Amino acid sequence: MLAFMKLSGLLAVGASLASALKVNVPTNPTSGATTQIDWTSTASDPSTFSLFLANITDAFDLKAIIGEFIDTSLGEITVTLPTLVAEGGYVLNAVNAT
Ligand SMILES: *[C@@H]1O[C@H](CO)[C@@H](O)[C@H](O)[C@H]1NC(C)=O
């Protein structure tokens, strides 16, 4: 059986590279499990963006592509997080995809 590790406290949200888009830290993110990610945006934000999960201490250590060309107007998505070890820290980065 898969061990679902709690990642609370290990997951942060990075500076958004997509204008005023503000991604909220997911509540109770769990490795390998379904997690809801929500964000707030303004009219000046791009219509689509991508979400990447990286190592918080090494931005080039990409752990997962959470989503690409996400419709900004949705406000939230439900994704299945990849299996991650519960150590160090992770950061969610929103990147302009338009
Ligand atoms: C993140 O990067 C650091 C430094 O390269 C490394 O020591 C650590 O193991 C990495 N964390 C994960 C979860 O891969």
From TrEMBL:
Residues 30-97 form the Yeast cell wall synthesis Kre9/Knh1-like N-terminal domain. Residues 1-20 form the signal peptide. Pfam families: Kre9_KNH. Keywords: Signal. It comes from the Eukaryota. InterPro entries: Kre9/Knh1-like_N. This is Yeast cell wall synthesis Kre9/Knh1-like N-terminal domain-containing protein. It comes from Roridomyces roridus.
